[in-house]
Structure formats: C-alpha cells, structure tokens
From TrEMBL:
Keyword Cell membrane part of the UniProt annotation: no
UniProt subcellular location: Periplasm
Protein's name according to its UniProt entry: ABC transporter substrate-binding protein
Keyword entries, A-Z: Signal
Family stated for the protein in its record: Belongs to the bacterial solute-binding protein SsuA/TauA family.
Principal place of residence: periplasm
Length: 326
C-alpha cells in the first residue's frame, strides 16, 4: 500500500509539473497593422504558434525604422518588416545584423487609387497628375517608382509627387486633399471604393512581380541562441500559409476580423480575395535568390541600394527548407 501511495503521489506530482509548463514567449513586432499580413493573424487566431509551444506577443510598431530599432535594441525578438530594412542595417556595419528567415508576402501590396472613376485607365494618364506617394526609401515607394519607370514615367519629373505625409495619415490626406492618385493597401483601397472616395485602377503587385516584400527576421545572436524557437515559429507560419492557400476568403476574413474590428466583413473578404488572386501571400516561407535580386533591382532603380549585399549573408533558407521537407 505504501509503495502504491508513493507511486501514485509521484505520478500526481509529475502531472502537476507537466500542467505548469509554460510556452516559450516571443515578442513579435509588425511594421504596421495590415490585412496584407493575413497569414500572420491566422497563425495567431488558429493557435498554430501555441501548437508549437510558443506564446507570441504581437505589437504594432508603426514604421520600418522604428521596427528595426526595436529589434536591434531587443525590444522585440522577431520583426515582420520589409526585407530592404535588413539591407539598410547591414550597410551600417552592424555587428549583430538581422537575418531574413521566413517570407510572408511575395508581391507589393499596394493598389493605384484614382480620385475619379477611370474605366479606361492607361498609365500614361498619370503624367502631370498630383500623386500622393509613400515614404522615401520604403518598399511601397520604391516599388511604385520601379513600376512607373517601366511605363516610361519619371516619378520626379512627370508627376507632382508628394512624399511628406506619414504612412498612417496617407488615406485621410488623399481623401481630403487635392490629389489625383495615391498608393493604398487593402482594406483601405476597398473602403475608399465603397465610400466613393477613390477607385482602384491598377495593382502595383501585379506589375512588379515577386519580391520579398514582408519577411520575418531576427538578429544573428537571437537565431543562434534560440534555434528551436525560430524553427517552431517558422513551422507555425508555414501551417498558416497552407491554411490560407486552401481556405475560402470569407472564412479567412472571419478568422482575422478581431484584428480589423472597424472593417466590415464583406470588405475584408473582397480584400483577401484580391490579394489571393494576385498571389500576394507567400505559399511557403522560403525567400529565394531570384526574389532577393528583384528586390535589389528595385532598390537600385530608386537610388536606395547602399551596397550589393549577397543573398547568402542576409537570408537563411535552411530553417524553412527543413520545415517544408518535414
């Protein structure tokens, strides 16, 4: 009896200990709150991170420079931000620069929105117009300039280009200002259409091709010291990517609506459908070399590439490849 009681007591203690095990905490900082990042919110809401033993704390940092500052100062562990920011940091001779390890979006996420309806829009129509652009050096602006130049439009000479509005204030500035065109992400573009404040006439994502637009990255030191965490994080992202790829936009919208409480469900659904149709959501976390080179071409065309950073220096695909193969 004593032996039975001892064994039973030990077993109960073991169960209690197992029950008290906590998930590993990861502080994740996103550069902005965007429907463009739908698979990330799916990973959070569907419990994919928790399944991998992670407790992911999401915060919106608002801006690429602020996001990288938070990452480099250990305010966050992982950043979701444009891959170009890792190049900027590397070029500053950082001793502990950021490594891109999992890609989330693979096209530009902005749409060209006109103040007036233009059913027969041609890119040539932009010449001489008042264009509200994005922040200089950021991916939206660089991709925008790249696409415009492909259509023989010099953004600095053929347009009345404005770049002095903060990212968060661009939609309201366009709605109230005397601008003809603007670059907008979803769901803002669809909201503008619904309210009659603008009309989508073209997609920069379709025009620019595949590019590592938004990527999860972490410092070298964090990745070397927390390899298991990064592996688990990437597995959760890949689960979410597969789920988004296989799921109807309406169901995706319902899952991520808590992150966009002020947006109607029908707008969320149509926005997700628009992104899915143009292949904006990456279907796996691998950032390939062709995409990296396309990014550098875009940066160089915009005059923002500080140096030719080798793919192997700033991109780690081993984790993503292992996740996919297993």
């Amino acid at each position: 009896m004593r032996l039975f009681a001892l064994v039973s007591g030990t077993f109960l203690i073991f169960l209690a200990a197992c029950g008290s095990i906590e998930n590993t905490s990861i502080k994740l900082g996103e550069v902005t709150r965007s429907l463009f990042y739908a698979p990330q919110y799916v990973a959070l809401e569907k419990g994919f991170f928790e399944e991998e033993g992670l407790d992911v704390e999401l915060q919106t940092v608002w801006g690429g420079d602020k996001t990288m500052t938070a990452l480099l100062s250990d305010g966050i562990d992982v950043a979701l931000v444009g891959a170009e920011t890792s190049i900027y940091v590397y070029a500053q001779d950082s001793n502990d620069y950021a490594i891109n390890f999992a890609q989330l979006t693979q096209t530009d996420g902005t749409f060209l929105v006109a103040k007036e309806q233009q059913p027969d829009f041609e890119w040539e129509d932009l010449k001489g117009s008042s264009f509200l652009g994005q922040r200089k050096g950021g991916m939206p602006q660089m991709v925008g300039e790249f696409v415009l130049k492909q259509h023989n439009i010099d953004p600095h000479n053929d347009l009345n280009l404005s770049q002095n509005i903060d990212f968060a204030n661009i939609p309201s500035a366009f709605a109230s200002g005397d601008y003809d065109y603007v670059q907008l992400f979803e769901p803002t573009a669809s909201v503008f259409e619904k309210e009659g404040n603008g009309h989508v006439v073209a997609s920069f994502g379709e025009e620019s091709g595949h590019v590592p637009y938004t990527v999860f990255m972490a410092k070298q030191s964090y990745m070397s010291e927390n390899e298991d965490n990064v592996d688990a994080f990437t597995r959760a992202v890949y689960k979410a990517q597969n789920w988004v790829e296989e799921t109807d936009p309406a169901e995706i919208a319902e899952v991520i609506q808590p992150y966009f409480e002020d947006v109607d469900l029908d707008i969320l659904t149509s926005s997700i459908e628009r992104y899915k149709n143009q292949g904006s959501f990456a279907t796996d976390p691998i950032l390939d070399e062709e995409e990296w080179n396309n990014l550098k071409d875009i940066m160089e065309e915009a005059g923002e590439l500080p140096e030719d950073v080798p793919y192997k220096d700033l991109v780690n695909t081993e984790i993503a490849e292992e996740v996919i193969n297993n």
